[in-house]
Amino acid sequence: MTGSPRGRAHLFMTGRFKTHRPVHKGEPMNSIPNAPGVYILVFYLSQTTTITFNRKSSQHSFPSGWYVYVGSARGPGGLSRRVARHQRRNADGKRMHWNVDYFRELAPIVEVWYSYTRSEQMEHEWASAVSSMHGATVPVQGFGANDCRQCCSAHFVHFTERPATSLFRSRLRDLIAQQPSVFVEFADDALTAMTVSKHMLFVEYHRGRRFTELRHLAIAQSDLDVTSWHSLAKRRPARQLAEQVAAQLDVSFKELQKSIEFADAVETIVGNCGNMAFRVLFDPMRPQRRKGIMELSRTADTRQQYRIGGVTNGSFRSVGPQSKDSVYDTVAFKEVPSRLVRARGAVHQLDVHLQNGVQQSVATESDRLAELCLRAAEQLSKLVNAESAADHILPRELAKEVVWPTLMSRDVKGKIVGYGREALRLTIKSVWDYPEMRRRGILPTAAERRKVNQECERIIASAESVRVAVLGQRT
Ligand SMILES: [Zn+2]
User: b/e string for 27-47 if b means 16 or more Cβ within 10 A?
Assistant: First the structure.
């Protein structure tokens, strides 16, 4: 058998390539090839632990959580030999050499992420990618980076939340255009050590992800078209792989299929909401239902962020989407014009009702809402056409803390002021979101800018008409 990645494809396809086996002490854990490459060890530390380094010359306390170590293997035996070395402990006869060896004594390796490469640079690119992920902190300066002559901030990083492979892959793509595929190897003993096996949803996620990661590897190693790996229909290559994985995990194909769907759902949500979504989805203190997670994964990314954020801050218990959810975070500019069309409809309704004369309290409140709505539309128009930075300054009267009480006030009740609040909410939302959209580079196209200007003009016209009607009623 050759060590090259492509050389394994044939074995893999015929099913003789046993992809996983239990890990025993002192034995290489992996089906990782002996090709040269770059790798990440993902450690899980279940509690804060003090670790002694360099034959007791120094000590450091490590908070619980997830640790990521970036290394490269270019010597004989390549990735396979290096990872096997990391997996062993001092008691297995390993000679202690690097800082990470001391850390590994007390922390189980949960996953290994790797790529085949001969590049000397890529280790540092991976270190940059991992350090730039949300929530990454450096526990000890210089740890694991003794040989690093580059300007990496660290080769060893801590996360409170589980770091998601999907987010790492996307961060790498942002950094470097031409990236080799990133593969994942799982370590069974570490999962047991995490004592999460009682958490059925987490087990389900892991089963499914084991398949999707193996499929990722198989796609890279086979000459088959990617689309042939999508379907789990009988006699398709993905089905054959799934059946192998199901046998290894000792579950039925049907069960694994459910797990695959679930893992896809979790990855989708984590991809849209970040690593913190893991904690929300699998928090033993606030257990979520599988059905709610599946439903959430099929909604828009804004809705996913809204629900995950809401469970995080305790506003609600379930991540399951509700029909009454108000979706507050804009992530794409295309939402702005459609929101304005709805705002225009609402302010028009308000205008129609005001023409017939209403109670004084309703008139006064409608006037206030219409005025703010008008100002918000003017401001939004200004923002999308902004030529100078001065146009980006939000006037005090449109600040969130000023407008919010008006928006939330229920002193005046009824359908009519409801239209006014709806119009204001939909209009001012985009004003508040604009700085974030600009930061993320989500800016309007020429067509979207025209549409925004047009809708804002209509909103302003209807809001002025409301104000005239209120003035007329007063006199
Ligand atoms: Zn470096």
Answer: ebbbbbbbbbbbbbbbbbbee
